[in-house]
Design goal:
The protein has 82 residues and is mainly alpha-helical. It contains 4 helices and no strands. It has one domain (1-13, 38-82). The two termini are 17 Å apart.
């Protein structure tokens, strides 16, 4: 089972689209192609975002410090990164 931060990052990855390797970029024509997420990717991202929100809401209600620390790198705070 994924943690709240893992769900959040999964949603971001789904919305960001496929990542090109340096070799792929070098072979390109220099013209950026527009990428849009598929309906399936949008639905998956929504589920992950909802689960992340539920986890964050539960944390706000009084969670253990180690759970709060998991969120800090994800939301741009300070703390250990994974």
């Amino acid at each position: 089972m994924a943690s709240g931060p893992e769900h959040y990052l999964s949603a971001e990855r789904l919305l960001a689209g496929p990542q090109k390797s340096a070799a792929d970029r070098d072979r390109g024509s220099g013209v950026e192609r527009h990428w849009a997420p598929s309906q399936t990717d949008l639905l998956k991202a929504q589920v992950h975002a909802t689960l992340a929100l539920a986890a964050a809401t539960a944390l706000a209600a009084g969670a253990a410090e180690h759970l709060v620390q998991d969120w800090l790198p994800v939301v741009g705070g300070t703390g250990p990164s994974r």
